[in-house]
Amino acid sequence: MINNRNNSSYFDTDNLEVLNCRRLPARLSINQVAVLLNFQPYELLQLMRRGLLKCLNSPAAGANCRKYFCAAYIQKLADDPIWLTKATGCAAQAIRDKNLGQRYSSG
């Protein structure tokens, strides 16, 4: 979805510039990866927690540090239909789990 002033959007349009690159930068931010893989950034965090996506940062860097990803690794994942199926299912399950938890905690 493209950002316009009257409607909220999923993506910051500045990150859509990565789609027009002749060559991807070696290191991608989580927002750029979200655009390339067509996931939301919060879904990518779920994939990382569940071991389906690896970032360049070491675990010692901490949970609150900026996440970067290898462009070659992301391109390989984007070309793998088996990984995409697993990742899509995992992201959907994470959302279901979250919504189920909210329903029980708010009632």
Describe the structure.
With 107 residues, this protein is mainly α. It has a single domain (13-106), classed as Orthogonal Bundle (Multidrug-efflux Transporter Regulator, Chain: A, Domain 2), CATH 1.10.1660. 48% of the residues lie in helices and 6% in strands. It has a two-stranded antiparallel sheet with strand order 1-2. α2 (41-49) crosses α4. The longest helix has 26 residues, at 81-106. Mean pLDDT is 82; it is low at 1-11.
Main beta sheet, described? 2 strands, antiparallel
CATH topology: Multidrug-efflux Transporter Regulator, Chain: A, Domain 2
Strand % is 5-15%
Please count the helical segments.
4
Report mean pLDDT, rounded to a whole number.
82
Q: Using DSSP, what is the number of strands?
A: 2
Briefly note the structural class of the backbone.
mainly alpha
- State the name of the first-level CATH class: Mainly Alpha
Low-confidence stretches: 1-11
Spatial arrangement of strands, main beta sheet: 1-2
Helix content: 40-55%
List keywords for this structure.
two-stranded antiparallel sheet; 4 helices; Multidrug-efflux Transporter Regulator, Chain: A, Domain 2; mainly alpha; 48% helix; 107 residues
